[in-house]
Amino acid sequence: MDLDLAPDLSAALAAATYTYDQVAELLGPDAHAALQRNETTPGLRRTADGSPLATLTRLFLLQTPVSLTAAEGALPGLVERSVAAGLVDVDGDQVRALLDLRPYADDLLDLWVASDLTPGMDGTPYRTRPDHVLGVSSASTSLAQLTIRDDVGSALDLGTGCGVQSLHLAEHADRVVGTDVNPRALALARFTCALNGVEADIRDGSLFEPVAGERFDLIVTNPPFVISPATGERLVYRDSGMPGDQVVERIVRAAPGHLTDGGWCQILANWAITDRPWDERLGSWVTGADAYAVQREVLDPAAYVEMWLKDSGAHPSTGGVPVSYRRRYDEWLGWLEAQGVQGIGFGWLNLHRTDASPRLSFTEWPYEVEQPIGAHVTGWHRDAEAAAAGADALWATRLHLAADVVQETQGAAGAEDPGTIVLRQQRGLRRAHQVDTVVAAVAGACDGDLPLGVIVDAVAQLTGAEPGPTRASCLGQLRELVADGFLRPT
Ligand SMILES: C[S@@+](CC[C@H](N)C(=O)[O-])C[C@H]1O[C@@H](n2cnc3c(N)ncnc32)[C@H](O)[C@@H]1O
């Protein structure tokens, strides 16, 4: 693509106020929500005034041809150059988009992202092309929200696609490298970066090949993680060409070798769940890094195969051929069964480079969490380190109850004591721990003044219990509260 077009184009988009907020306001909540369901009719009803903003919204988001006059009004002097760049096509008096050009934003900036057009608008049959370049997807957003946003010297966006992660990384990394194997993705990522005035070094090549011998402070990736036999047609945005979850294993094994000391690699991924526990299986891939993994969701194999066959347009409801849909479904499901795959996990893998023996923390947490969650990832690391202290060290530590923890009690009406006590975080993963009355009292008394052991002994005395056995009985629960960030060293 013509990168020289990018600055003039972004100036025109800005002049037309083609920003995320302005488009959302123009469409209104219902048409905006409809567009997210790939329905254009409500949006067309709201964009008929011929203004530059309405024209760009129709052209690039609603995938509806606009008149040449309207296009010239919205992109003054740029239509011909946009045709040459492959962005739009002119047919008589009609201009239609060949690529998706959408406003995007974060807390700080208005941005634009170029990608392929979303297939299957308004329920039209579609077949996704093998080198399709995905736009900003829910997975892109999840990874962006998981990313630790501390200032860093260097960052790698592995499998950059349309370049969306590079845009975010450029806001807090001095140097950004993006990689991809799809030439169309490389071109679109470069164009996206140029549109936003972002200098990212976008390189061609598989996984870590383009960065051989280089290390980064932060690596983020939303790799092509779909778990399949890898024998059929490969959609490069989702299929790695490797069977099963090998692509994720390869990234986990190789990433620590590309991280600076204390650097982080954050991966959004699927993994196979076999008769070996998922945490043990994934943990066996980790060397040279502490790992913090959260399994957010588990799908059964049939639901998984259906979801991805529908994604490619193979389902008969989107124009697929029923016989071949059923055959592919059966083959894929049969292969998963033969591999002993009982379910497919989805979640987050965070690797923190260390030369010490790796600390592994794996948790299943399908519940709603605070977003963005990135700021809490470094907290998990710090909390796990604190919880790993020996018993004597823990009893000597001054802890305070995190400010976001609340206590919930339940029990029979009129009962003197609660039946259950739950401590619940309001932030981060929003975890909850059921505790007994002693641990609740200890946690409530942790204000950083006294060592933990002294507080436990005092609570034991108040309840008429022996301090020694009380310490022994509550050590495990207290250690878990420290590991999960309910109690923090002062
Ligand atoms: C799911 S998309 C993610 C795109 C983008 N990073 C995002 O967050 O939206 C995966 C990307 O990985 C790329 N990819 C596929 N195989 C790859 C490989 N072996 N090495 C590097 N990138 C690859 C695909 O072309 C695609 O752009």
Spell out the key features of this protein.
3-stranded antiparallel beta sheet; single chain; 490 residues; binds S-adenosylmethionine; 8-stranded mixed beta sheet; Outer Surface Protein A, domain 3; Rossmann fold; 37% helix; alpha/beta
Tell me what portion of residues adopts beta-strand conformation.
15-25%
Number of E strands = 19
Name of the top-level CATH class of the largest domain:
Alpha Beta
Assign a percent range to the helix content. Answer: 25-40%
Report the average pLDDT across residues.
96
End-to-end CA span? 54 Å
Rg on CA atoms, Å: 26 Å
Shape assignment = elongated
Enumerate the distinct ligands.
Answer: S-adenosylmethionine
* Main sheet properties: 8 strands, mixed
Question: What can you see in these coordinates?
Answer:
The protein has 490 residues and is of the alpha/beta class. The chain has three domains: 5-98, no CATH class; 138-372, Rossmann fold (3-Layer(aba) Sandwich); 389-489, Outer Surface Protein A, domain 3 (Alpha-Beta Complex). 37% of the residues lie in helices and 24% in strands. The chain has 18 helices and 19 strands. The strands form five sheets. An eight-stranded mixed sheet has the order 8-7-6-9-10-12-11-13. Helix 16 crosses helix 17 (452-462). The termini are far apart. The model has no long low-confidence stretch (mean pLDDT 96). S-adenosylmethionine binds next to helix 7, helix 8 and strand 7.
